[in-house]
Fold these 4 entries.
Entry 1:
Amino acid sequence: QLKVAADRAHNLSRARELIRQAAAEGAELMVLPEAFTGTYGVEHFAQNAEKLHEVESGSAMMREAAEEHGVYVMGGVVEDASPIVPGSWPRTTKETLFNTIPAFGPDGTLVARYRKVHLSRVKAGPDATAEATVFQPGDHAATFEVNGLKVGMCCCFDLRFKHLSQFYEEDACDILAYPSAFLHSTGQHHWELLLRSRAVDHQVYSLGSNHAMNPAAAETPGETVMYGQSLIADPWGTVLDACPLEGEGFAIADLSKEFIGDVRERIPLRTDAREVTAAP
């Protein structure tokens, strides 16, 4: 969980330090928040854009940290997918920006890339999001494996679309990971509920990594108050660890393939599901 600021270098430094601390405690999969390199918002996304792997970018930091500590690292960046044309100026437009989650393995290789499918469109209290005015949506799911556990990659607003998590269930995923920038206005009602629901519905672990709550943003034009409370929920719906609303840190837990199997055996949803049709 990061207290994301406008200063990219500061955000990358803090993320790198939290990865170091978590690795020292034995963590093998690190999940950073959505768009963690700069202030969240349609006014800020273009200036936060990066080419994957470019110097001093969020993706480069994740790659370097993954290799340095021998772990898996995933997190959200604003990806500029415009073509590089020698001799021309960079061309960043709505048509070339994606809300992207790259994942890097222990040797620093890109093991998966997920472009957010469901772009946030929310009106709640003082908050409004309209990511589709800036980003193109992704079209594909993405997965990778960590020590025998298959990870389904999602992002924030995807929590509300059960057909995506159902796809990952049918693809035999054990973990659903949700890097997020979840608003306080909705998070206080839905964040924990949705993460625990996805874990119970699909009998998986759900991981939600969020921006730390930032109350001062309410008084700053163009900024949004986030909810915090990054957490890990198990297939029984138990929250194994969680961060407070405010402040930086990380939730950490041991994830067990055996426990997943035990829950699925005790409540055999996959074998007992039946098709339903309309009454004649």
Entry 2:
Amino acid sequence: ETAPHVSSSSLRVSTDFFTLLLPNNPTMSIATFETSMGTFKAELYTDKMPITCGNFIDLANSGFYDGIHFHRVIPNFMNQFGCPHAKDPNSPRAGTGGPSGGTTFQSCDGKTISRTSDGGIPDELTERITNDVGTLSMANTGQPQSGGSQFFINVAHNSFLDWFDRSTPSAHPVFGKVTEGVDLVKKISQVPTRSDNPIQPIKMIKVRVA
């Protein structure tokens, strides 16, 4: 006897239909960053970091990051971005802001997550992904649930920032990695600065995840 034939096409259709029903469709994993210096793209680790990625996708696709400037860039270290105060490139408050407190978003595994009163999200210190060149990592103050909208892109292998590296108390979870435009990211880190802030402002025109 031959085994029953299962149509792969019908299986695929039903699977696609199911994923469309999930919040923040898990197939959305490529972030496109359009900046005043050019465009780069990154893969988001939606399966390994569902909370952190869900927060990022919510902010990116709602336009939260549009018009914000990189407020801190350091060659051979990293580029930091995502503070709403940095819509003014010279704001003295740049680096202190985040999402509105008490707001909610959908994690990539379908759960509803509430941000703290300060806009912070749960610390997703679960996956041993190192802060290597090109990785996206959450910025925080060192206090629990202090990560919100700010993140940085490593331009060196900064293993001392890993939550599982005990050489320092730093704990910055990685949630994605640049797949196109790493040279641009490094170029951004090398621009002339004043107190680590680019003298010629570098604007994020928009970030979208698809």
Entry 3:
Amino acid sequence: MDRKYRAGSQFCGGGALSQQNAERERKDRLKRLALESIDLAKDPYLIRNHLGSYECKLCLTLHTNEANYLAHTQGKKHQQGLARRAHLEKIKAERDAALQPGGVLLAPQSKRLQRPTKKVRIGRPAYQVFKSRDTTTPDSSSQRCLTFELSFPEIEAALQPRHRFMSAFEQKVDTPPDRKYQYLLIAADPYETVAFKIPNEPIDKERFVTHWDGGDAKRFTLTLYFMDPPKVDDKNGEEGGTQ
């Protein structure tokens, strides 16, 4: 390395080379080697603007000359941008390879979205409703009972009727909603969903029973009991009593 023209040194005498100057010369040497080995005309990310400076389309950075741009390409930001672009191009290539001749993209089975299909309904099922009271308890505390029997002879295979309770404020049929009632919904494909309007009172969960006869009868039975109303002690005048 020629050091005879270094500042602070004698003519034709090699001056002391500091670490900072050595690093600068090393970078300059690498830039010159890169200019000799790399063809910037084939770089798709290098453009020259109307001011004569250079721009990197990948990182959106501005550079004064080609050597400065080459130093930028060896940096962390540009290398991460190249890796990110390669990853995106790989994903695009996989999507293009998955396209069928008809132009339909087949996603993997695990990631394919299952869209709900519209099924043809065949009407409402036949049903019966029975009202009774529990005879095993005294008349003063006998529980009211409702039993629903529905027949689903055309129910789809391996399916079982489902049920749920709906409040008066959820439904949009009976308007305005009456908080004194609630609705029992029973559904089974391909039949229409049926709803029964029942009193909005607490239900005895311990005596709530459902049964599905999946044999030849295809009959669904649901039995529920309403909780006993709270007893009122007239002697103490808690409700309507006088002392």
Entry 4:
Amino acid sequence: ALLGSEEEELAAEKKKASSTLAGLFSTCYLSSELGLKVMTFFLLNKGLVSWGKIFCYIVLTIIAVVSAFLMTLITDLEDHNADQSRESIRKRAAEKTLAAINLCRDDPKMLLMYPTQMTFGFCSSFLNFYVSKNIVKEYIGKSAVPLLGGLISLIAASFSIPTGWISNRVGKPPVMIAGIFCFLVVMLIFTLLPDHIVGTYGCIIPAYVLYGLGRCMFEGQNKAILADFFPSAGAAWGANVIVSSGGSAAIGFFLFPHISNKITMGSICIVTSGIALCAFLIAAKIYRSQQAATKIDIY
């Protein structure tokens, strides 16, 4: 009984740690994004320097190169003595790819989490392609595009740590549901309301704030709950997140320019959000059942 109690306490502590660390990661990531958006806004829109565009490209290139270099220094803590030969690295990469595929095959929770990742991908494509171009630029002004984009990052960064605190007290599922619901409401606003109504500060700012809250969920507690769902398959679920969110964003990027009306684009986002909400509830139920079978009460 004592051993079982210790296991339950350890599991609970891991869940709290995942919420806290996800909030910290999301804050750092989104704050960096906000900083870059502020830099590009002042250099490109305010004309602080005549060569602002070139300076932005130089800074972004340096960040990309340094980031790629630093990634090469990251090694698996469990494999720090592993063979670092090219053949060995290729073998481990193939194993991780196979692990990602096997996770989808063996655990239904992974496929059930796909719609949540795809919701962000489709919504971001719709926001960037249609809303920014046809609503913000037309009814508010071109200079408002980076400002509103920065607002999303600001809201998401500001609420990342508080959502981690909330998750530790009420559980991650309510935060996840609220985040998905934010995406759904924003897409309903952009899709169903006329552009001239959406294109007012009284409508666009609340919508972007809601989107920022949804982004906060996606970048933070979404990763935390995936870590809870698949504690021993970090690389596998991480790869699936990249494929599902990045893939849907790419599909939206290439597909939406060929769609003639916003109703169709918005409907794709709305349907995906609705499916994400239902699928997540099913995944959470499966997880609770699995934990109940091991007598560990998490949520």
